[in-house]
Write a structure and sequence with these properties.
The complex is a heterodimer of chains A (about 325) and B (about 450). Chain A has helices at about 10-15, 20-25, 35-70, 85-95, 95-125, 135-145, 150-160, 165-170, 185-210, 215-225, 230-240, 240-255, 260-265, 275-285, 290-315, and strands at about 70, 80. By secondary structure, chain A is mainly alpha-helical. Chain A folds into 2 domains: about 35-65, no CATH class; about 80-320, MetI-like fold (Orthogonal Bundle), CATH 1.10.3720. In chain A, strands 1-2 form a two-stranded antiparallel sheet. Chain B is of the alpha/beta class. In chain B, about 45% of the residues lie in helices and about 15% in strands. Chain B starts with 17 loop residues before the first helix and ends with a helix. The chains are: A mainly alpha (about 325), B alpha/beta (about 450). At the A-B interface, helix 3, strand 2, helix 7, helix 9 and helix 12 of A face helix 1, helix 3, helix 4, helix 19 and helix 20 of B. Chain B: It comes from Goekera deserti. Chain B: InterPro entries: Bact_solute-bd_prot1, SBP, TAT_signal. Chain B: This is ABC transporter substrate-binding protein. Chain B: Keywords: Signal.
């Protein structure tokens, strides 16, 4: 039986000085064609301005922020001193760091979890063909497009124990209002409630789009096979919504970690609601104006966001069903 | 067409070949280069140049246009614009534009400080009592003595207490503008139902005796007295209690921190007991004046800058009086507050001169009265004729009279950056979490000492 051998690499066996074959010439790397150059110019023309803007207004501040995190710099001062990694050491050894990270984690888990669970429930309701569903969808989505500052101010009055609606209702039934603003735990609960209320519509609309893209044949087949609503939801709908869930989870975590407006308006002192981003604000603008230390906290937050995003992309995406 | 609306590209499909690596590296280096080309602070160790006052202002011509940054304290935007219009009409060399640069002293301070780095400085801005000293330490404002002389501004005619608040190292760093003191506000109807004399209590002990009568008077109040919202100015108003008990956050004459002194602890313990043991005091969630005007509480302490607003909102006759004293001191136990007007260093001399002329106009005796009538702030000039003002609003006379018994604030509050926030947090722990007072004050002293060593001492 004849042995099958791989053809010799002509490129390495051609004797020096020998004329290359036409096939060899075809394999030789050619320079960019006129069409390639034209495509490249079109790419530069279309993407170039955006890349410049991103470099100027996203990457430049990012790298500047990392640089500032190595400085002892007071806001407003024209001079600063380099302190290396001292700001990082101070943050990670500060007694406040654990509290800030815990608050950040609680706020993120509660707001993301609350928005997703309630958003999915609302989407399931809005996915039905009933009268007035169009208005209901608009009503659910509308808080998301409102200004966070305006929303915060309105809820400030609603929660006010003395002049607020909630306090008045509770007093009408002989109860007293919780101290939403003076008890740090309740303050965090209050802010979470408002954040979930504001962002519920966004999650619900995304889930609604996901629900409407589910092939009805699958649901009918499940019904024929005797699957009840619960089994259909957990075995058919939820797995098929996994790309949507993945997207919502990713964007909600990023948004929640960067939440600021409601925190600033509803609890300016930050007691109980002092997340990483709010602590960065307090350090730079409300306290000692320590820009360098604030930049350190911002850089820690940036690192956290990068890690979380990579973890989600690498680990969670494996569990996502696209078909 | 995709069945699903969102389909992220799998990360595993992104290969990192040599070309992509070089592209990413290039992008990173470009961004780093951009960062290196950017502005930011000078780290060469040269230090900012000191603000000096050796300009010969007679050789400078005022700028044709200047801006005035205000947070419009005490809802003063309309009256401020009215005064600016009058100034613009009274002369032709400088046109002034009012810029609302924040909703409160903190926001305008943020904007002013970021403008130091980002540009777009105002020509005149308001400085609150806790912010101007930072600008002095950062050397970003100018002393006003030479300018005051150049524009014939008579500093001797400004109320001494207010002028003294902006003096340091023998120089004047701001001119009094929207100045106030806190006063004791009360609901006269509640007082009447409780059978109390129509006056403010002279001491906190006296009010402690009155409180049960107010609570039992059938007015439906939630508290006889409402402590101010702590996120605001706990550090400011509680000086009244600290001084009344013989304590303080610190001292008006030096940088000592005294918040952990026995007297200071006793003063705050009294307030905590009023909330938790006596049950006659509450803590405002957002606005103590709003709680008072809603008749949900019988009394509170707030700025004179809130006077007109309270009178307009209240549906009952409002009473006012001096701040109560304590067991150790009955007078002086009142602090000054509010804002002055100052001038940045890094603007042209022409603008600085025009700014000084504008400040002089805004604080002329008759204009100070106009401003006071609209807001409740105290007229900052001694020669201001307040007879018409007090005839129209007699409660303003109380604020003016109380000026005679004011006391300069503790440096630990007004000169330590971020001290007000630390004080508010400590007070909140004491008054809303029933934290141990001595422990909180000990922690506060440590925090304030750190602030002094880190942010103040090196800049003096």
């Amino acid at each position: 039986m004849a042995a099958v051998t791989a053809p010799a690499d002509t490129g390495t066996t051609t004797p020096a000085g020998a004329t290359a074959t036409p096939a060899g010439r075809r394999r030789r790397r050619r320079g960019p064609s006129a069409r390639d150059r034209r495509d490249y110019l079109v790419f530069i023309a279309l993407a170039g301005p955006n890349l410049v803007l991103i470099a100027l207004f996203t990457y430049r501040p990012l790298f500047e922020n990392i640089y500032y995190s190595t400085l002892n710099w007071t806001l407003g001062a024209t001079t600063a001193t380099s302190v290396g990694l001292a700001n990082y050491r101070e943050f990670f050894t500060s007694p406040d760091a654990a509290s800030i990270l815990t608050t950040t984690a609680v706020f993120t888990v509660a707001t993301v979890g609350g928005s997703m669970v309630l958003g999915l429930m609302v989407a399931l309701v809005l996915n039905r063909r009933v009268r007035g569903v169009g208005f209901a969808r608009a009503a659910v989505f509308s808080p998301f497009v409102l200004s966070g500052v305006g929303v915060g101010l309105v809820w400030l009055f609603i929660f006010d124990p003395v002049v607020g609606v909630i306090g008045a209702l509770l007093r009408a039934v002989g109860r007293t209002s919780p101290e939403w603003f003076n008890d740090p735990t309740l303050t965090l609960v209050m802010v979470i409630i408002v954040y979930v209320w504001k962002n519920l519509g966004y999650v619900a609309v995304i889930y609604l789009a996901g629900l409407q893209s589910i092939n009805k044949d699958l649901l009918e087949a499940a019904a024929i096979d005797g699957a009840g609503p619960r089994r259909t939801f957990f075995s058919i709908v939820l797995p098929l919504l996994s790309p949507t869930t993945f997207f919502v989870l990713l964007t909600s975590i990023l948004n929640s970690l960067q939440a600021f407006d409601l925190l600033r308006i509803m609890n300016p002192l930050g007691r109980g609601t002092n997340t990483l981003i709010y602590e960065a604000y307090l350090q730079a603008f409300a306290g000692s104006n320590r820009v360098g230390y604030s930049a350190t906290i911002s850089t820690v937050l940036f690192g956290l966001l990068v890690v979380l995003t990579i973890v989600q992309l690498v680990l969670l995406e494996r569990r996502v069903h696209y078909r | 067409m995709s069945q699903y609306p969102f389909r992220p590209a799998p990360l595993s499909g992104v290969g990192l070949d040599r070309r992509r690596f070089l592209s990413l590296a290039g992008l990173g280096l470009s961004a780093a280069a951009l960062a290196a080309c950017s502005g930011g602070p000078d780290t060469s160790g040269a230090g900012a140049s000191a603000a000096t006052d050796d300009t010969d202002w007679s050789t400078v011509r005022p700028a044709a246009a200047i801006t005035f940054w205000s947070s419009n304290p005490g809802a003063s935007q309309a009256v401020t614009q009215q005064l600016i219009d009058a100034y613009n009409a009274s002369q032709s060399e400088t046109k002034v534009t009012l810029v609302t640069a924040g909703a409160n002293y903190e926001e305008i301070a943020q904007k002013f400080q970021t403008a130091q780095a980002g540009g777009g400085l105002p020509d005149v801005t308001i400085f609150s009592d806790v912010w101007w000293f930072r600008y002095y330490m950062q050397k970003t404002i100018i002393p006003l003595d030479g300018l005051a002389e150049a524009v014939d501004m008579d500093l001797g005619d400004y109320r001494d207490q207010f002028v003294a608040d902006y003096q340091y190292e023998g120089a004047q760093w701001a001119i009094p503008w929207a100045r106030s003191t806190p006063i004791f506000y009360y609901n006269k109807d509640h007082w009447s139902k409780a059978g109390l004399e129509d006056r403010a209590p002279e001491t906190w002990q006296e009010f402690e005796e009155w409180a049960p009568k107010l609570l039992a008077a059938g007015t439906g109040v939630q508290a006889a007295f409402q402590l101010p919202a702590l996120a605001g100015y706990a550090g400011w108003t509680f000086q009244n209690n600290l001084w009344g008990w013989g304590g303080g956050w610190g001292s008006p004459d030096d940088f000592d921190v005294r918040c952990d002194a026995t007297e200071s602890i006793a003063a705050l313990q009294f307030l905590q007991d009023a909330v938790y043991k006596g049950g006659w005091a509450g803590v405002a969630s957002n606005s103590a004046p709003n709680d008072l005007t809603a008749a949900a509480v019988s009394a509170t302490i707030s700025s004179t800058g809130d006077l007109v607003g309270i009178q307009k909102s209240a549906t009952f006759p409002v009473g006012a009086g001096f701040l109560p004293g304590g067991p150790a001191e009955t007078s002086p136990v009142c602090m000054t507050g509010g804002a002055g007007m100052g001038i940045p260093k890094d603007i042209p001399k022409e603008n600085q001169l025009a700014a000084a002329k504008f400040i002089k106009f805004m604080t002329e005796p008759e204009n100070a009265v106009t401003f006071s009538a609209a807001t409740g702030y105290i007229p900052v000039r001694k020669s201001a004729d307040v007879s018409q003002l007090t005839a129209t609003n007699p409660l303003l006379q109380i604020a003016i009279d109380q000026l005679e018994v004011t006391r300069t604030q503790d440096r630990a509050r007004v000169f330590f950056p971020g001290a007000d926030q630390a004080m508010a947090n400590s007070c909140a722990n004491i008054l809303t979490q029933q934290a141990d007072v001595a422990g909180e004050m000990s922690a506060l002293k440590a925090a304030l000492t750190t602030i002094y060593d880190r942010d103040v001492k090196p800049n003096l």
